[in-house]
Give the backbone structure.
Amino acid sequence: MTLLVAISGWDPQPWQEQFAALLPDRKIVTLDDPFDRREVHYAVCWKPPAGSLAHLPNLAALFSLGAGVDALLADPRLPDVPLVRIIDANLTARMSEYVVLHCLAHLRQYRRYLDQQQKGLWQDDRSQPAAHEISVGVMGFGVMGQDAARKLSAIGFPVRGWSRTPKDFEDYEMFSGPEGLELFLARTDILVSLLPLTPDTAGLLNHSLFSRLKQGGKLGGPVLIHAGRGGVQVEADILAALEDDVLKAATLDVFSAEPLDPDSPLWKHPSLTLTPHNAAISTPASIAHNIAAQIRSFEAGGLLQGLVDRSVGY
Ligand code: NAP
Ligand code: GLV
């Protein structure tokens, strides 16, 4: 029985080694190794080349090595077998660190004081709102959104959430669907997007949406933090919204084309903080362990956790 490590853009070797250690009774191959396609029962994937998973007649399940499966679903030749996305405590904790870090950086004007330090400037206008005065709206209130919400709440931020289907939480005001979007936006100072890229969310973070965020809040304008998927944002609209003062600032981890073009005007904009799609990185040690345990449980008759609903795209 073979497990295929189908990865592009990352080094497959540490993944192959981890799976070999955890599943010593299987053959673990990468796309570059010679292998018998009939022997492949499982594939673990990150952005595999389109069509590379076709013609695996005994494939039982596909595992995404990331939480987002948009790149996999974009392959028209993706086999029609259960597709499992990763839910991993380490990955989730990393995303929450990112969200908390950047919410605090905007709250405490981190970029401004860094700039002042570089200029040797001792200047303080006593304009520091408290966390409880700044409402954080989390779009995408799934595994990552909920964990980030808990940690933001612990710091004192009032948190609101927006999801596709209605949800009820004692600690957060919740909104759902297109009908809930207006009020959610109107009450949000810092918009955190952790949405998956689906046909419904593509291009959602656009100028029109930004213009409906709360104005007159204590940050001096709404702020965007986006660590979901680049295709959810319209980058030209982010720049336009910053120019129009519709947005005060933004932190972006994901981009419509990655790596971001060295000539992109996003790089040098003074109100943008950019990171190279590493808000939450998949590490072989914890994720391979998680998938190996799922395979063992599945073969013993258990249910797969984190099954993707292809009809909604996540
Ligand atoms: P998840 O548990 O599936 O949660 C997705 C959330 O988005 C759910 O609350 C879902 O609503 C909501 N949603 C989906 N479509 C929507 C729509 N049309 N309108 C409103 N809400 C919608 O996913 P997750 O584990 O939290 O991960 C979220 C995303 O983060 C991933 O898909 C991936 O793209 C991204 N990510 C990025 C990085 C990075 O390093 N930048 C790392 C990991 C993940 P329901 O609750 O109603 O289903
Ligand atoms: C990373 O972007 C992921 O989807 O896990």
User: Anything to note?
Assistant: The chain has a mean pLDDT of 97. Residues 39 and 62 are 14 Å apart (CA to CA). Residues 89-107 form the longest helix (19 residues).
